[in-house]
Amino acid sequence: MPENKLDILQGTLDLMVLQTLVTMGSLHGYGIARRIEQVSGDLLLLNQGTIYASLVRLQQRGWISAAWGTSDNNRRAKFYTITKSGRKQLAAEAHNWGRLSSVIARFFNPAKEGSSKP
Amino acid sequence: MNSLRVIWNRLVSFFRKSDLDREFSDELAAHIDLLVEENLQRGMSPEEARRAAFIKLGGLEPAKELHRDTRSIPFLDSLTQDLRYTFRTMRRDFGFTAFAILIVGLGIGASATVFSVVNTLLIRPLPFRDPASLVWISNHPENDANDLSAQTVQVDHLLDLRAHNRSYSDIAAYFAFYGVGDNKLTGTGEPERLTSVPVSENFFPLLGVQPELGRNFTVEECKWNGPSAVLLSHGLWQRRFASDPSIVGRALTLDDKPVMVVGVLPASFDFATVFAPGSHIDLFSPFPLSPETNRWGNTLALVGRLKPGVTVQSAAAEIKVLAAQIKREHPDRNDFTPTVVFLARRVSGRLRPALLVLACAVGVVMLIVCANISNLLLARAASRQKEIAIRAALGAGKRRLIQQMLTESVVLSCCGATLGLLLAFVGTRVLAHLTSVSIPLLSDVRIDATALVFTLLIAVFTGILFGLVPAIQVPGLALHDTLKDANRGSSQGHGHTWIRSALVVSEIALACVLLVGAGLLIHSFLRVLDIDLGFHPERAAALRIDPSSSYSTQEKRNAYFTDALHRALDVPGIEAAGLSDALPLGHNRTWGIAAKGVVYTPEDYPFGFVRIISDGYFKAMGIPLRAGRDFSERDSLDSQKVIIINETLASALWPGENPIGKIVNADKPDRIVVGVVGDVRHLSLEEKSGSEFYLPIRQTQDYGSVDLVVRTSLTTAQLAPRIREALRPIAPDLPTSNLRTLQQLVDKSASPRRFVVLLLGGFAAFALILASLGIYAVISYSVSQRTQEIGIRMALGASAQKLQAGILFQTLALAAIGILIGVASSWALARAISSLLFGVTATDPATFVGMLTLLTAVAALAGYLPARRASRIDPMSALRVS
Asked: A37 partner at 20 to 30 Å CA-CA among A13, B71, B93, B784?
């Protein structure tokens, strides 16, 4: 396992899960984990067990729903789907995230900040 | 909104634990399968694929645990685990559990009961509207509460106060000289004497009391000679009229006159419990504030309601100014030196110190209970060392172990609290039904919501308190050495031995404080009972026989009295009989009384308690005649006006002289002193009588009630019908339900003191038992720990006596330290209860020595039993045991 993998920031896993469900539709835990790893280009250090804690959290907030179903290769698995309020929440969080990351970026790149001043 | 939903979901998850666990296991299994499949496709061997899958997942159990913690409330989970474990331990250690619950239950029961009493008397507001603004306005506060003449005011004083003050929204009054059984109810049913309190028109509106049926008095009814009207108390309405709703508007026959019932007061209003504890009030009648009633002198007790924002201090200051002004403008009126206190303060005032002492005592009892259980838990923790060590070895952290131990102790104390609550429930019911105890508001004592909260708090608090010391010890016990060493206790060198000794020492010290306090109070109580009352209450009884309205002139009434006395004396079994308008330990009134020819300044004008009596009264009461003669039937309307005075008054008026034949001025005309009698404790048991004088009933009309006092060998049950029979020709319909023995009056007067003594004595006894159990537990534990050592010593030739003496010495050393601390603290604290003491000093040596001897003896006994067991240890078996 490469040493330079990134730790997942507190709270960001939930966002990734929501976004994954938006993109992929209904998906089981394994599928979500795989997708996150793929999208991150295997740069994230993901302990797949923590996916389930995130799923429980989101479910208890009413942002995703779950139902047992059958996977492509005919296995019983629990499938998660994003709900309406989940989409709303994701939109709001994505917006926040965008603002926050631009602020952080400005901190790390003060030159840009200086030039933006009139 | 969302967080509520999350909490709800988490709670649901907590209760669906096993379902969710199973479901999640399935989900994880599917996940693993998928991972394994992926790994196989990458070309791993099946074993390696499986291993890699688990690693990828971060382990099966951690994933499950994380899931559990996230979806539910982790604290609740560990709590249920602890609780389950606790109940298992409790069942296993049944004897210990039962004992602990019992003593915690007794302690909490006592605490909750005392708290309910304190809550009712000192904390809970009086049962009136906005009780915080109600004040009691009295005249001459320095005078004793039992001297009503000095406490009350004249009608015109009240009227002037109402007209001119700016501090009160209103001032109301009741007539303080009402007598128990003043009114005779006849007509349907048994004739009965009822107690009626005359009140001013605004009395009920001021207190915020609405009649539950009918209406309050009207202005018309509160005029002199206005239409007659009464309000019934809820109790009388229920008892005598079977809660008949049509009673309003009907007329009752009271003292042979028809009186209209205008309303019924609600059950929540109990006049007696606030203003006259230990009595029953049946009726309320209107009291006119008129020139006629003004002439009666000091008669009114005042209750005021302060305007919003006015303090008692400013109200008191204003009323002092007003009083001075009234005095200047009306020098003819009685003296008026008012003071103002909160009504609540006045109601609980005299009991306040006693209640505080009881509250502290019960707190001390709880501390002893805690020390005791702490001690037992420590002993148990020692025997559970292995179990704890195993739990620690399996990964239980320090905090987790302490949490487990605290859970156990809080569960214990909560079980104890349940038992205690039951006891307190019974206790408060018993207290509320003690009708013979004259403590205000006692009938309102009950376990209410406040008491429940208090009990819960005290349960949790005591649980943590007694669990804390053992719990902190636990991680120390969990050292892995314990597992190896099977506790081969030679001599005990464990650190917690001294903690246990300290706990026992503090138990003894606390018990010592309680014992000394209780001892002092018991001693005082015995002194009070020993007092020479000046009369002999045993075998004396009294019954109201006021002349009915058909005896319309003084001559007729005098003939009635003579006749009644003769008829009473004719009853076999009655040895002496007399009449009086004021029995001891009841109401008192004072008049000025001056030796003729002496000029007094207004400040030292002599006053005395006046009693209107007949011949035979002194004999019936057992009051000794010191000089001169008793009254006789011939001291009547047209004979010389006579008076009998007590010894105190005699020496006050004519120090060193023979008072017989002297002339005094008490009422008009002058009277000649014909006799001197002994002093009578008339105000209360604890107080000296002061000046007293007696007027013959046939020479005055100034009495409000007439009691027949008899000295008899008959029981009350025999006496009542015989007197009724004997007096039937001259007093038909004589109610005899108010027949009471003088001993009852004395008992009632002593009842608050007895109440406190009984409770405190009970607490002290409980404390003594607990302390002795504590000593016993520690000593016998140390003996059992040292069995081997003792065996070796005996094998080496130590004698049984020597061993026994050693252990006894160890006990007494503990006791001695405890007693030393206890005595020192008692010495300091005893001063706090000096206001409750009577006839003993706070440092009464007899009490101290007595209680110390008792405590030492009990300690010695508690140490002797294990010592004897130790001396009987067989050295061979002791050495073989391990």
From this structure: B71
